[in-house]
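Hey, I was hoping to borrow your eyes for a little while. I've dropped the whole record in just underneath, so have a look:

——
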Amino acid sequence: MPVSNYDPGQELSSIDFRSMIGGPLTAVVEAQAQAALSTVDFIKAVGFEPDTEDETTGEITPGGPIYVQFKYPKQVSPYIPPKNGIIDSATLGGNVTNAATIDSVIITSSGGSNGNIVATVNGSNGIDIVVQSGGEGYAGSDTFVVTYTSNAEPGTTETANGTITIRNEEAVPAEFEELQLEVPILTMVPIPFLRVEETEIDFNAKINSMEYRRVGSEFKAASSFNTRSTTSGSITAGTGGITSLFAKASSRFKFTNSVNFKVSASYKRSSKQGSKVEKSYQLGVRVKATQDETPGGMEKILNILEDAIVGLPVTA
């Protein structure tokens, strides 16, 4: 059709935008549903045993979770390194009967540390000694001093000396027990929960229309000019052998002249017209999918399965 009568709007209105845009969106929805079904199939196939059917009653029993079992040694008692110079007991020298309050207890030692002796006033105004922490590195010759306030003379401070006894402890090896761990496999593998996060549909239509007219003319001319001249004649004279006073003579001459002129001319005119329409359509679909968060129901199931992780002693 002539371009002058061409309407690009009619061309665009004939495009089925519903199919071009709705088609990819429908495909995305179907892909999302297919991904959800794939997740269900994955959980059933990987995490649970197949269902069983009773041949008599036809009752179907759902399969239980699939567990991964392995053995491992568990330390039930840690290794205790050896200790030397542990305060085993403390004895106060002399008999104290006038103690009101205890001010301090100081252990005198050149190499011991972390030992702690506690002194308290009993009902007879005496002092009871208790080893709260034995520490290590003490010697049997080490002593301690208890500073206390006397009740005989208020405000008077007195001291009482004491001695300690020590003991040594050998190293205690660690103790292990072989256990068997059962872990549901669904708690160990990533479960695919794909979600279409974003879908972009780009449609570009490009229509170029053009009308053209070509006119051409050609003129050719040629000419030639030619002239030609010729002359011919004859002369005769004689006496006939007899002397005479008068001689006989005759002459004939012919002149010819010709002109040749040629002219040729040609003229050629050509014209061409028409219309040209170029159409270009582009459709781009971009889909972005991400790993979605675990649904609430599935998260509760996984928590229950995690609570089911137990370590059982291996029986011989």
Summary: Residues 241-246 have pLDDT under 50 and may be disordered. The chain has three helices and 13 strands. The radius of gyration is 64 Å.
